[in-house]
Amino acid sequence: MGTTLSTLTNLAIYIALVVVGAFIGSRKGVRSRPLVWVGKLQFVALMILIVTLGVNLGANDEVISSLGQIGLAALLITVLAMVGSILFLSLLRRFVLKLDRFGLPRGSAQTQEQEGHTAGKADNSLTKWIVIAVVLGMLAGRFVFPPAVTAHCGTVINFGLYLLLFMVGMDMGKQGTLISDIKAAGFQVLLVPVAVCAGTLVFAALAGLVLPLGIKDSMAAASGMGWYSLAPTLLAPYSLSVSAVAFLSNVMREIFSILFIPLVARYIGYVECAALPGAAAMDTVLPVVVGATHERITIYSFTSGVVLSLAVPILVPAIVALPF
Q: Least packed by Cβ within 10 Å: which of 5, 25, 79, 273?
């Protein structure tokens, strides 16, 4: 009950920050100004958030100790789950949503304009900075900062996330297309988390065919959808080994998402970026998605993250209860 209440509270805060930011950004006095500092501040805040995430993970003895014991199983499950979620979402985008790789209706004038802007904002420089930030953060958390400092990482992450979500909302408002983007997405946007979930579980099951864990336990480990603080807790009464794999796998999913979203945006598609982080598409990884794609993809990423976050407390026990 406490976990569910905490999840709903966080969702309310995130939604409120994005909405308030969008409202302020849409004001005529704000839209008429260039506000170059907003983009620079957003980049700095994003780097601080990613470094802090790295510090938090590097200081976590459970993460470090799990790398050698269960790292291979967690890695295979994570990679296949992410590939599956991208594949399923790509099929949904092309054949059901009928969107081009920029997340726009096929053949629209906006598509031609987007093509003329060298694939939007996705570029390899963002990947470079993200890799540097993650590596430096983990090294600092492991070898430099004492526990008295790393204990405050959660607070820094929360406030950094609040600031980034507010600025993402401002960007959406300044674009002046928020309402049209919501209308364009429609109720079909709810199919995005369904595709992500299906792709994750199907390909995790494939991993189970070659792992000692088996199909069911591999699916259970992946069913946290990137929520590494909840899934292991739910799985611990069932199996401590599966809980450990789930923890490391979901940690990997968030880190790999941060690293590879710019590449997916550039070479596969904007909407597919929402598939990589799973539940984290609504919070910690949302600024990375938007930074590598376009503000209109916020609708897909945020909605997918919200639905998957609400589904995890139901999905994990449901898979554990499967009769095989």
A: 5
Q: What is the pTM of this model?
A: 0.80
- Written as one string, the DSSP assignment of 217-286 is HHHHHHTTTT-TTTHHHHHTTT-HHHHHHHHHHHHHHHHHHHHHHHHHHHHT-SGGGGTTTGGGGGTTTH
Residue 180 has a CB neighbour count (10 Å cut-off) of 11
**CA dihedral sign, ordered 230, 193, 257, 204:** positive
**Alpha-carbon gap, residue 87 to 120, rounded angstroms:** 22
For 99, which DSSP code? B
CA distance 10 to 17: 11
Phi, then psi, of 321 in degrees rounded to 5: -80, -5
Task: Write out pLDDT tens, residues 266-301.
Answer: 999 999 999 999 999 988 898 889 889 988 898 999
Helices (H), 116-239: 124-143, 147-150, 153-175, 178-185, 191-208, 214-222, 231-235
